[in-house]
Amino acid sequence: MMAIRYWLICVKTWFLCSTLARRNRSRITKQSFTDYGFLVAPGAYEVILNTDNIAFGGNGFADDSVVHFTIADPLYKKEKKEWLKLYIPARSAVVLRKVKVKK
Protein backbone atom coordinates (compact mmCIF):
# COMPACT_ATOMS: atom_id res chain seq x y z
CA MET A 1 0.00 0.00 0.00
CA MET A 2 2.82 2.41 0.88
CA ALA A 3 4.56 1.70 -2.45
CA ILE A 4 1.38 2.62 -4.31
CA ARG A 5 1.14 5.89 -2.40
CA TYR A 6 4.76 6.76 -3.28
CA TRP A 7 4.12 5.83 -6.90
CA LEU A 8 1.14 8.20 -7.04
CA ILE A 9 3.27 11.02 -5.61
CA CYS A 10 5.94 10.28 -8.24
CA VAL A 11 3.33 10.41 -11.00
CA LYS A 12 2.01 13.73 -9.68
CA THR A 13 5.57 15.08 -9.48
CA TRP A 14 6.28 13.94 -13.04
CA PHE A 15 3.04 15.55 -14.21
CA LEU A 16 3.99 18.84 -12.54
CA CYS A 17 7.46 18.81 -14.08
CA SER A 18 6.16 17.92 -17.54
CA THR A 19 3.45 20.59 -17.29
CA LEU A 20 6.01 23.24 -16.34
CA ALA A 21 8.27 22.09 -19.17
CA ARG A 22 5.42 22.41 -21.69
CA ARG A 23 4.73 25.94 -20.48
CA ASN A 24 8.38 26.78 -21.11
CA ARG A 25 8.29 24.96 -24.48
CA SER A 26 11.20 22.70 -23.61
CA ARG A 27 11.66 19.15 -22.34
CA ILE A 28 13.44 20.22 -19.15
CA THR A 29 12.45 23.11 -16.91
CA LYS A 30 15.40 25.49 -16.87
CA GLN A 31 14.02 27.69 -14.12
CA SER A 32 13.70 27.21 -10.36
CA PHE A 33 10.41 27.93 -8.58
CA THR A 34 10.25 29.60 -5.17
CA ASP A 35 7.11 29.05 -3.05
CA TYR A 36 5.43 26.92 -5.72
CA GLY A 37 2.03 25.98 -4.27
CA PHE A 38 0.19 22.65 -4.24
CA LEU A 39 -3.25 22.00 -2.75
CA VAL A 40 -2.88 18.99 -0.44
CA ALA A 41 -4.44 17.44 2.64
CA PRO A 42 -3.61 19.49 5.77
CA GLY A 43 -0.58 18.40 7.76
CA ALA A 44 3.19 18.15 7.64
CA TYR A 45 5.26 16.66 4.83
CA GLU A 46 8.86 15.46 4.67
CA VAL A 47 11.12 14.97 1.68
CA ILE A 48 11.82 11.33 0.85
CA LEU A 49 13.48 11.93 -2.52
CA ASN A 50 15.02 15.05 -4.00
CA THR A 51 16.89 14.61 -7.26
CA ASP A 52 18.75 17.87 -6.56
CA ASN A 53 20.49 16.16 -3.62
CA ILE A 54 24.27 15.89 -3.97
CA ALA A 55 23.97 12.11 -3.54
CA PHE A 56 22.07 11.98 -6.85
CA GLY A 57 24.43 14.30 -8.71
CA GLY A 58 22.46 17.49 -8.00
CA ASN A 59 23.61 20.81 -6.63
CA GLY A 60 22.08 20.40 -3.16
CA PHE A 61 20.25 23.75 -3.16
CA ALA A 62 17.35 22.56 -0.97
CA ASP A 63 17.54 21.42 2.67
CA ASP A 64 15.85 18.00 2.75
CA SER A 65 15.78 17.83 6.57
CA VAL A 66 13.08 20.52 6.77
CA VAL A 67 9.52 19.40 7.54
CA HIS A 68 7.09 21.37 5.37
CA PHE A 69 3.78 22.47 6.92
CA THR A 70 0.64 23.37 5.01
CA ILE A 71 -0.89 26.85 5.04
CA ALA A 72 -4.65 27.22 5.56
CA ASP A 73 -6.74 29.05 2.96
CA PRO A 74 -10.41 29.89 3.71
CA LEU A 75 -11.31 29.39 0.03
CA TYR A 76 -10.49 25.67 0.23
CA LYS A 77 -11.84 24.91 3.71
CA LYS A 78 -14.83 22.93 2.35
CA GLU A 79 -12.52 20.77 0.21
CA LYS A 80 -10.28 20.18 3.26
CA LYS A 81 -7.22 21.31 1.31
CA GLU A 82 -4.38 23.60 2.28
CA TRP A 83 -1.39 25.07 0.45
CA LEU A 84 2.00 23.37 0.55
CA LYS A 85 4.63 25.82 -0.69
CA LEU A 86 7.97 24.44 -1.86
CA TYR A 87 11.20 25.54 -3.46
CA ILE A 88 11.65 23.43 -6.59
CA PRO A 89 15.13 23.70 -8.16
CA ALA A 90 15.47 23.61 -11.94
CA ARG A 91 15.80 20.18 -13.58
CA SER A 92 14.74 18.29 -10.45
CA ALA A 93 11.87 16.43 -8.83
CA VAL A 94 10.84 16.32 -5.19
CA VAL A 95 8.85 13.47 -3.62
CA LEU A 96 7.21 14.01 -0.23
CA ARG A 97 5.24 11.98 2.26
CA LYS A 98 2.83 13.07 4.94
CA VAL A 99 4.07 12.69 8.50
CA LYS A 100 2.43 12.83 11.91
CA VAL A 101 3.48 15.84 13.94
CA LYS A 102 4.53 15.24 17.55
CA LYS A 103 2.77 17.61 19.93
Q: Which strand-content bin applies to the residues?
A: 25-35%
Oligomer: single chain
The pLDDT mean sits at: 79
Strand order of the largest sheet: 3-2-5
Spans of 5+ residues with little confidence (pLDDT < 50)?
Answer: 1-5
Using brief descriptors, characterize the structure shown.
disordered N terminus; alpha+beta; 3-stranded antiparallel β-sheet; 103 residues; single chain
General description of the model:
This protein has 103 residues and is α+β, with helices and mostly antiparallel strands. The chain contains one helix and five strands. The strands form two sheets. The chain has a three-stranded antiparallel β-sheet. A two-stranded antiparallel sheet has the order 1-4. The longest helix has 22 residues. The two termini are 27 Å apart. The N terminus is likely disordered.
Summarize the structure.
This protein is an alpha+beta fold and about 100 residues long. Helix content is about 20%, strand content about 30%. The protein has one helix at about 1-25; strands at about 35-40, 45-50, 70, 80-90, 95-100.
